[in-house]
Amino acid sequence: MARYIDDILQPGEKVLYSTNAHWVFFGPAIAAWLLVAALLVVSRMITTEGLIVLCLGGAAVVALLGLYWTIKAWFHRMTTETDITDHRVVHKTGFITRHTFEIPLDKIASVDVDQTILGRMLNYGDVTIIGVGPGTNKTIDTIASPLAFRSAITTR
After folding, report:
1. Is 96 helix (H, G, I), strand (E, B) or coil?
2. Is the pTM of this model over 0.85?
3. Domain ranges of the chain
4. 49 in helix, strand or coil?
5. In the chain, which residue ranges form alpha helices assigned H by DSSP?
6. Bridge partners of 127?
7. So what's the pLDDT on residue 33?
8. Of 63, 54, 57, the residue nearest 36 (C-alpha)
9. Considering the chain, what percentage of its residues have pLDDT values greater than 90?
10. Would you say 107 and 63 are in contact if contact means Cβ atoms under 8 Å apart?
11. Across the strands, what pairs with 103?
């Protein structure tokens, strides 16, 4: 699958910085897989037949949820692109239905970064690009390395 930015680059335009949705999107899937492992360990430690079946059944249900969340997070990361070229900022989400926005670098007034404590520890956050015209404020949620992203825009 080709990258969206490669298809829309103008002649002479270069990609300066690329980032993606942060791996934290895998959080629910990771929690589900840890719960599956815990249920399997517990099922080996107990001797009551009914509880063993209950643990194994619960592990199977949670494993299905974990598989769903894993595929969903992977697909989100694979279909989300955020790039800065020497002319513009481009953000694309989606596969079948695609949502994109592009803001020329000379139309950007400021770039705001919002990070939670966990976001600061794991290096992810939300970036709001504030344009000079009405309706040009765009927020990109949960991207990796938001401070580096902001620096790539502001140090041009």
Report:
1. coil
2. no
3. 26-75, 83-154
4. helix
5. 4-8, 27-45, 49-78, 117-122, 146-154
6. 113, 140
7. 98
8. 63
9. 83
10. no
11. 89
